Amino acid sequence: MRPLRLALKGFTAFRDAAEIDFSDLDVFAISGPTGSGKSSLLDAITYALYGKVDRVSNEVRQLISQGQPRMAVTLEFAVGPDRYRVTRSTSSGRGQTRIMVERLDRDGEWKQAGEGADRIKEGEALLVRAIGLTYDGFTRSVLLPQGKFAEFLVGDATKRRQILTELLGLSLFRRMAEQAGAVGKESSLREQTMREMLEHEYAEVTPEAVQAAKQEAREARKRERALSEAAEHVLEVLERWHRAQRSVEEVRACAAEARREAEEARAACAQVVELAGRMGAADLDAAERAAAAAAAQARLDLARGAMADAEKAWGTAPALTEARLAAYSWAEAGRARAGKAAERSAVAEAAVALQVRVEAGQHAVDEATRDVAARQQEAGESEAELEVARHADLVVAVSAGLKPGDACPVCGAPLEKAPPRSKSGALTRATKTAEAKKKALERARQSLWKAERAFEGARRDVEAGESERDRLQLEIEGLDVSMAELHARLADVLDEPFPADPGAVIDRKLADLAAMDGAERQASRDAAEAAQALLKAEQERDRVEAAVSVHRERLLRNRRPLFDRTARALDQPVPIQLPEDPGDGIGPLVRYAERLAEALSEFAARLAHEGSGIAAIERTLLSEAAGHVDGLIDEQPTLETLAQAVNNACREATSTVATANHRAEELATRLERRKGLAVEVAGLQARASLFKALALELRQDRLVAFLQEEALQLLAAAGSERLAALSDGRYGLGCRNDEFFVVDTWNGDEERSVRTLSGGETFLASLSLALALAEQVRSISSTDRARLDSLFLDEGFGALDQDALQTVVDAIEQLGGDGRLVGLITHVRSLAEQFPRLEVEKSPRGSRLSLVSP
């Protein structure tokens, strides 16, 4: 298994999405500070493939990034030429896990890898089958996490053998044991089944039975040949009888046809007689119908002439109808003109009265105008008197009590004399007079306003009367023009003098035209009915003539084919005297039919006599045919039944021959089959014994234990070479009793347990064994699937000195150069910088990845 791409999100330190592309890498390092998530990348691989991680076992929810709802990992990997993709995710709530295993098809599309690939149990089983390793085998041979690196070296021997069984495909031998047991059991069952078959189904299959069946087949073939020869003779006789029968049948058929012809001739004779009567009646009816049609046509011509004369004198009905509308319009226009003239006279009379009103109104306006002027003058004079009275009253009020020499209250000058005293009531009388004059002026103005309104109303009425009179005059003139035009149009259809009621005159003419049209239509219908009756009469006559022609053709048709068939059937002609051609006319045709019926009846009677003579030869032919089959079948009453019996006997004999041959061949085949089954039973017995012994041997696991021991020795030898190079030649590796031990060459090749090594020495020994396992697994495996295409190491490099470190680098580079993917998780900067490396950088948000070239 070789990883190609790893994508993860929400997994331990990798809160955000991160991705690693392994496709272009062979040897690389993963470096970064402590706690950045370097080992989490290996955990993500085991989580994707197996759903668990060694440090948390099955409690994978603990690996979800803090605060994240779900973690998800996608791993693409290759197993030989096949590519797979597994996506696994787990929620932080109930820890629900989902999985999807996909496989890349030939078209480059990812498709579900099989039934159940989206379910946990089935998906994980599919992955184990594809990779070839369980979780324990994977974490001890491919992905070596912290704490598991040395388990293959110093761990439990049973687990080590289990890992070797997975890696080397040694379970194949267990499956071989199961298959061998199944084959042995199947062979034993088949042997037993075949023995039972030989005892029951082939008990009567003997050489004697085969000889008896062959003798029976020879006797059946002899009878078949005899029946076949007899059948040929019977068929020849039967053919002669069939020819005679065909002659009899043909003669009888010709006799029957002659009788039918005679009956048809008699029937035609009777029908022609009946048609003769119908022909006379049809001729008489046609003559009567022709006379009636001519009379109806004459009446139609007379009606059409009268109608044409009337239309020429008065015009057509549509023209008169249009004139009737014009006459109606002329009468309506006359009545409208009379009404308009009366209205105009009334308007003229009203205009005289309105003119009087206008003159009276003008006089009233003039009078009111003069009255208003007089009232205005009086009001002015009374207003002046009122002002004088007011002034006088004011002076008296201001100067009351003043003496000559006092200052004037208005101008301040000394008064020369005392102010006059007030005259009691003068101001009051002046005020009343002024008010009275104002009211009189207002009444005069109101009278003027009313007089003006009355005058304006009368003047407007006069103007309206004049407009109405002009409008009525225009309408009267328009009606006069219309009446003149209508009069001109009516003059074309009315005689002079012009009638007082042109509509009534036109109505009378329309009524006369309608009566003439009705007469013409009735005459046309009478003529059409007469013509139809004449046509029917002529058609009846034609039908009678056609029927006579049909009978004539039937009676005169050529009967030579009937006479020729008769001559061929009897090998000689039969004389017959037919009547001569009847010519034209129904009477001769009737006499011809009578003589023809007599001649054909005599011909049919002679044919019946000849046929009876031919039919009498069947008994002679039956005796001849029976002589050829004497002793082979029973006696038969007729040639037909004899031929059928011989035919049936031939078929039965043929079937008997086929059955006997088949039985003889089948017995011979079964005899050979019995011999083959006996040989096969012996072979199955030997095969069952062989496979049972093989299954027993394989079930004892001696072969698997031997292969496991050989693999451990090869791994120890290859690991010893690696360890010697890494330890400057001090240590070597060996294996005895399923346990690894080291050979200390610096202490006289002392052998001691690998558990006595220091931490650094244990790392070197474990690394040597891991490199040897990755390098040797393909050569020591029993299957082509066993191969470690990837190796991940996660501890121990810090315990190496510089020389040992370089030796490790050389060994890893050599291992990676063979097409494997080797990943190192290390804190040793000098080691990481020698390879392409994935730098893991941690931050509060989460770790990030970057690929750095050396």
Explain what the structure shows.
The chain is built from 18 helices and 15 strands. By secondary structure, the protein is an alpha/beta fold. Helix 6 packs antiparallel against helix 14 and helix 7 (207-314) runs antiparallel to helix 12 (586-614). It is flat, with a radius of gyration of 74 Å. Residues 782-786 have low confidence and may be disordered. It is 66% helix and 10% strand. A 6-stranded antiparallel β-sheet has the order 2-1-4-5-6-7, covered by helices on one side. Among the domains are: 2-142 and 788-852, Rossmann fold (3-Layer(aba) Sandwich), CATH 3.40.50.300; 317-400 and 420-490, Helix Hairpins. The two termini are 26 Å apart.
**Overall morphology:** flat
Spatial sequence of strands, sheet with the most strands: 2-1-4-5-6-7
Helical fraction equals 55-70%
The level-1 CATH class of one domain: Alpha Beta
Whole-angstrom Rg = 74 Å
**Beta-strand content:** 5-15%
**Average pLDDT over all residues:** 76
Q: Between the first and last Cα atoms, what is the distance in angstroms?
A: 26 Å
